[in-house]
Amino acid sequence: MAVSVVSTVLVNRQGLREDIVEALVPPALQSTVNMALAAMPVSGLPLAIGLVGLLLYGTGVAFSAYETLNQLAGVPRRSRFGLLARYARVLLMVVVVLVGGLSVAVLTVASGPYPTWVSSNASPRPWLRLWSCFFSSSPRRRCW
């Protein structure tokens, strides 16, 4: 999805596209990349088709895992969820996985300046003390 958004922006803004291509692409390949980016479609139909395909793919994977776990656990067919509840759980699982993946991505990007901030604004001792309080094996240890 991010690739689709970036490619749409690169098609619509020629100056930005040229700057990015100059910065990232070797000079021998720049003309080919510029031609390919200029020829990309600008409509939202490919994005919509991609999102529907992504949803169907994720649902298929989650449904396959659901069926496999039920088979391995020996759950009788009559005890399994009905059609509507089964697909509701599968869609919920797809949403949980997507939210988890997006959260990891956002936290990874957001934590980029973190080591610089910690080293410039505070000594590491309070952080180490807080870490040792939360993860100490002794329940009687005084943290404060």
Q: Which ranges are low-confidence, i.e. pLDDT below 50, for 5 or more consecutive residues?
A: none
List SSEs in N-to-C order. Answer: HHHHHHH
Query: What percent of residues are in strands?
Result: under 5%
The tally of helices reads: 7
- How far apart the termini lie comes to 46 Å
Oligomer: single chain
Give me the Rg, rounded: 25 Å
Given the helix and strand composition, which structural class is it? Answer: mainly alpha
For the residues shown, what is the average pLDDT?
77
* Tertiary shape: flat
Largest pleated sheet? none
How many individual β-strands?
0
The level of helicity is over 70%
Topology:
Elements: H1 2-12, H2 14-24, H3 30-38, H4 45-73, H5 83-110, H6 114-121, H7 125-134
Description:
- It is a single chain.
- With 144 residues, the chain is an all-alpha fold.
- It is 74% helix and 0% strand.
- It contains seven helices and no strands.
- Helix 2 (14-24) runs antiparallel to helix 3 and helix 4 packs across helix 5.
- The longest helix is centred in the middle third of the chain and has 29 residues, at 45-73.
- The chain is flat.
- The mean pLDDT is 77.
Can you tag this structure with a few keywords?
mainly alpha, about 140 residues
Give a nutshell description of this structure.
The chain has 144 residues and is mainly alpha-helical. The protein is built from seven helices and no strands. The protein starts with a helix and ends in a 10-residue tail after the last helix.
